[in-house]
Amino acid sequence: MSDTKEVVDAATTAVAGASWSQTRAILRVIFTVLAVAATLWLLSVLRGVILLVVLAIFFAYLLAPLVDCACRPFTVRGRKHVMPRALAIGVVYLLILGSLALAATLLFPQVGTQITQLAEEAPSYLDLARLQVLGWTTSYEAYRLPAAVRDAINSSVTHTVEITGKYVMDGLGNFLIQLLGYLPWLMLIPILAFFLLKDSASFRAIALQTLPQGHWRWRGRELLQDINATLAVYIRAQLIACLLIGTVCTIGFYLLGVRYALVLGIVSGLLEFIPLVGPLVVALIAALIASFYSIRQALAVVVFLGIVRIVHDYVIYPRIIGHGMPLHPFAVIVAVLCGAALAGVPGIFLAIPAVAILSVGYRHWLEHTGSEGLVADLLKPGE
């Protein structure tokens, strides 16, 4: 009798243990979801400050090669000298500010003129689009569709044009308003970047000192090095791509006779920082503006941009970025859309670097724990 009771007690204990293990796995999943939600909420509240810090980091990454070059030893009268890092940063700042001032002096008058013309002619473009749509809707009358069907098609197409025009104009206005709202904050970017360039080694050492000595500190050092290399490769590659695409598109639009060629070229360079989505938006805008004047010109713009994308995406850009940041196009599109939904304009620009940092951190976490994956660990019953 006592043996039977011991067997029953053992079975009851085993069932209770298995039930508690499953409960722990479920609670672990719930706590992880809540932690992620709280982190996203905190990021959305502090997105302005985060954007400022991230832009300062981007600016520091762009200037770091120039600062390192200025800090190299040089020989004067047989003696080696090294420029102090703070002085080297100041010299680089003066060069950058001088270049930007020269570019603004040369380009701003033409850019302002073209933007003014575009704003004045935008309503006429919308009226012309309505006329083109009405001309298209009369082309299928030969098919003898029922009157109700024709009216439904005409009203839906006209409504689509109205909504699209209103969305484009309102979206452009909201984008400019948000961009202007961040301009006062932009003055702090060079200041923060100065301290990042000057004391980056100290910041890295302080961050590593918060980790226990041994394997944890070694893993943290490897993580910071990989994140630094990934962001440096991506940011510098995107800057080169923006300058290249902006220059090529401006020259190409001028040669094709497209109106507002300079504005469209600058927009092409700026939106190149947003992979996939930015080039698509530029192609739609340029082709739409060209179509108002000539269908052949619109087709020429599409062919030109197609050739530019093929040469740049498959020949030039892989050589610039190397293998520093492999992301699937699907992941890029989803990241940009999520960034726009979570943080608006800042989220669009920060989505890809954030995904890159998360992917590097996730890879290091798997290597550190020897894990098979996050989901497998969360659902694994506790011992």
Written overview of the protein:
The longest helix has 53 residues. The chain has a domain of 156 residues. Helix 2 crosses helix 11 and helix 7 packs antiparallel against helix 8. Helix content is 84%, strand content 2%. The protein has a two-stranded antiparallel sheet. Strand 1 and strand 2 form a beta hairpin. It is mostly helical and 383 residues long.
Report strand order across the widest sheet.
1-2
Helix/strand-derived class? mainly alpha
Count of helical segments?
12
Largest sheet: 2 strands, antiparallel
Shape: globular
Radius of gyration: 28 Å
Distance between the termini: 31 Å
Query: What fraction strand?
Result: under 5%
How confident is the prediction overall: mean pLDDT? 75
Low-confidence stretches: none
Total beta strands:
2
The ordered H/E elements are HHEEHHHHHHHHHH
The portion of residues assigned to helices is over 70%
Looking at the chains present, what oligomeric state does this protein adopt?
single chain
Question: What key attributes describe this structure?
Answer:
single chain, 383 residues, mainly alpha, 12 helices, 2% strand, globular
Secondary-structure map with pairings?
Layout (H helix, E strand, L loop, with lengths): L1 H44 L1 H24 L3 E3 L2 E3 L3 H53 L9 H35 L1 H4 L1 H22 L5 H42 L4 H11 L5 H15 L3 H27 L7 H41 L4 H5 L5
Antiparallel strand pairs: 1-2
